[in-house]
Amino acid sequence: MKGILKWIGIVLGGLVGLALLTAVILHFVGLSRLNNAPEVATKPVAVPTDAAAMARGEHLVNVVSSCGMCHGDNLGGQVFFDGEVGSYVFAANLTAGAGGVAATFSDADWERAIRHGVGGDGRVLVIMPVHFYQHYSDADLGALIAYLKAVPPVDNDLGVRRVGFPGSVLGGTIGFDDFTHINGIDHANVGANSPTEGATAEYGAYLMNIALCGECHAANLAGITLAEGEEGPPEGPNLTPGGDLGGWTEADFMATIRTGQTPDGRLLNAEMMPWPTFSQMSDTELQAIRAYLQSLPALPDNSQ
Ligand code: HEC
Ligand code: HEC
Predict the structure, then answer these.
(1) All residues at 6 or more sequence positions from 23 whose CB lies less than 8 Å from its CB, including other chains
(2) Quick check: 77 and 99 in contact, CB under 8 A?
(3) pLDDT tens digits, one per residue of 237-294
(4) Which residues lie with the beta carbon below 6 Å from any ligand 2 atom?
(5) Which atom of ligand 2 is nearest to the CA of 234?
(6) What pLDDT score was predicted for residue 198?
């Protein structure tokens, strides 16, 4: 009996040791993957300085892409994780103030971060939604960068990102493609699909990408429901003609985004659905989005 217990002890001890060793290895593998982005093809863009481009850039930053949602209203940066999963992660200060990236970024650095998900120091960016921003056209990205280089500087030095255990394993190994988006991008062809501005379905599809609509309404736009206790984005409803929008006219859609009030009299929650921001989109932009949504197959709710 004693002998058996001793052997069970040895086996259990061995298993615990193996689990610890595995955790340590995964920790370092994860850290290395997160801190050292692979070489990816990049496509730097020309950055204009004229007033029209500046105005376009401001509209993209503040209305269409709402960078401030994560980087702070003044773009001075915002902390995301402070100790959770052993990590410290913040959305960078994008301005030229103390600790801001605009002070040191080249035009190529901006492009690499926004369309490819690689930070100024060569780390793989987490959370930053580059799977949507990869679609930014060269012209729009140039305007966006022009505006970012000119925003009022904010002094806010948030230091450097620190990923610790278990974030290293969750974000760097098993959940790498959930926390980062570098792998899903066709790096050599970013921005290849850039339709001309107009009230067309193609332009609507483009806008919906750079406005992150799919983040909350699902990639196929049929809506998201989270399982009990599951963490995730706000649960956006079905936007295809299979949902409420199937019965809405163009005027209904425009009025909903402009006022937050749906045709059946509900007020959309502005904390979850950023309609006050999107309400500043132009008529052409909203018409384009509606045209694209109408062109989609009528999918059942949450059929992602
Ligand atoms: C959903 C939240 C979110 C949105 C929206 C967002 N970002 Fe980010 N962004 C982040 C986070 C978080 C990081 C830092 C990631 C890290 O350190 O791993 C980041 C990093 C960056 C970086 C890299 C800075 C560096 O330190 O190298 C740039 C540049 C950037 N974002 C620009 C933008 C721009 C421009 C927009 C709007 C077009 C935008 N971001 C929208 C979350 C977001
Ligand atoms: C951050 C998450 C998020 C983003 C980004 C987002 N939505 Fe929403 N959206 C929601 C949520 C959540 C609701 C439901 C709000 C409620 O019922 O109060 C919603 C509701 C809507 C509705 C009303 C649908 C209905 O059946 O009542 C429309 C239309 C809509 N969104 C369009 C868009 C479009 C177009 C975009 C991109 C330009 C977009 N949303 C981006 C989260 C989001």
Answers:
(1) 165, 169
(2) yes
(3) 999 999 999 999 999 999 999 999 999 999 999 999 999 999 999 999 999 999 999 9
(4) 208, 211-213, 215-217, 233-237, 239, 243-244, 256, 262, 268-269, 272-274, 278, 289
(5) 12
(6) 98
